[in-house]
Amino acid sequence: MQNRVYLDNAATTPLDREVLEAMLPYMTDFFGNPSSIHSHGREVRAAIDKARKQVAGYLNASPSEIFFTSGGTEADNCAIFSSIHTLGVTRAITSKIEHHAVLHTLEQLAKDGKIRLDFVALDEKGRTNLAHLEELLSSGEKTLVSLMHGNNEIGNLNNLEAIGALCRANNALFHTDTVQTMGHYPIDVQANQVDFLVGAAHKFHGPKGVGFLYINSRIKINPLIHGGSQERNMRGGTENVYGIIGLAKALEIAYSDLESHKNHVTSIKAYMIERLKERFQDLAFNGDSDNLEDSLYTVLNVSLPESEDNDMLLFNLDIAKIACSGGSACSSGSGVGSHVLAAIGADGNRGNVRFSFSKYTTKGEIDYTVEKLAALFPIESH
Ligand SMILES: Cc1ncc(COP(=O)(O)O)c(C=O)c1O
Questions:
Q1: Which residues line ligand 1 (CB under 6 A)?
Q2: Which of 68, 70, 73, 332 gets mutated to test ligand 1 (max ligand atoms within 8 A of its CB)?
Q3: Ligand 1 centroid to residue 177 C-alpha, Å
Q4: What's the gap in Å between 96 CA and the centre of ligand 1?
Q5: Atom 8 of ligand 1, residue of closest alpha carbon
Q6: Ligand 1 pocket test: which of 104, 184, 196, 203 has the largest number of ligand atoms within 8 Å of its C-beta?
Q7: What is the rounded distance in angstroms from the CA atom of residue 54 to the CA atom of residue 252?
Q8: What are 292-315's pLDDT values in tens digits?
Q9: pLDDT digits (tens, 9 = 90+) for 166-206
């Protein structure tokens, strides 16, 4: 019997067993509250400090610049709110294809009259127009630029180094959501002149409900969450200890084998492109996702032919035991179309499906998926 095929790794990834092993003792033996001064507390505090040091090391950051959060959404919100509340930002620049954790936050702040919001121009592939960004930045207003590293729906990659340099040259703050690229690409916060950067463990085989915010030490802001003195007074609340341990372990595994995972996943993506081209005459790819050199290697956003049954496409694939998505996980299933595909002018009548891969994906799973897809388009495919 065919096992279920999981091609929705941009939504979340399965927990690595090794990560679970690292977490388990912190659910049982090491149960102390890290704020307690006795030995139970101290041993857990030491483990959190080690995890923070490890995360900082992978990013070329200092441990004092890493703040653990409940995930990507909280970290994005905190970066945006704190720059507006405590750093005098009156204007933000973002793009129409950001994740809703960024877009909805900025739109609400603009609606509340706290900031003016500008959108950088994108080309038809969703690529950021850096000349337009430079033009927008020349206004001299105190500005926050929020542009993601890898897009979760169409896999486009932004050039962090170029954006960081433009922001610094124009005295703007730079926030980047690296939720999709963390653990998949080397990231250097200093080389990229980043002020705020965000990661979430569940996108790199870590646990859900834990992430982090990097805040450049040149920036001094008020607490993200008021309460106890946890996270050096920045985020009150007893720490998600086993989550933090799991996050650091997952990142350790990801960065210890970055090249081989990258090569494996890239070969899976290339294979799927080839197999789809063999089976479909009328086939396109949304955004930059079929660009094997310069797009997120975990994401392939496929534009399949028009069909009356396209409304049922994800459902039919699910029945065939294939899990994928019609856009970001946050909107799939809600009946709301993808704001990313709308922003790049993708044809909504076509069957737009996001397949996203991990180190566990096999070519056999791709063969099975392409055959099932072809069976759903009997006239078109050959
Ligand atoms: C690019 C991006 N940013 C932020 C998030 C939200 O992260 P979390 O689920 O950890 O809150 C996601 C999750 O889908 C994402 O893909």
A1: 71-73, 76, 99, 101, 148, 152, 177, 179-180, 200, 211, 328-330
A2: 73
A3: 8
A4: 16
A5: 72
A6: 203
A7: 8
A8: 999 999 999 999 999 988 889 999
A9: 999 999 999 999 999 999 999 999 999 999 999 999 999 99
| Assigned token pair, 297 | 């290697």
Q: Count the neighbouring beta carbons within 10 Å of the beta carbon of residue 193.
A: 18
- Angstrom distance (rounded) from CA 12 to CA 245: 18
78: annotated active-site residue: no
Beta bridge partners of 69: 211
Q: What number of residues does the chain have?
A: 382
Q: State the Cα–Cα distance between residues 122 and 343, nearest whole angstrom.
A: 9
SS (H, E, C) 193-238: CCCEEEEEHHHCCCCCCCEEEEECCCCCCCCCECCCCHHHHCECCC
d(CA 224, CA 10): 27
CA of 281 to the centre of ligand 1 (A): 34
Contact 128, 206 (CB under 8 A): no
Q: How confident is the model at residue 31 (pLDDT cuts 50, 70, 90)?
A: very high
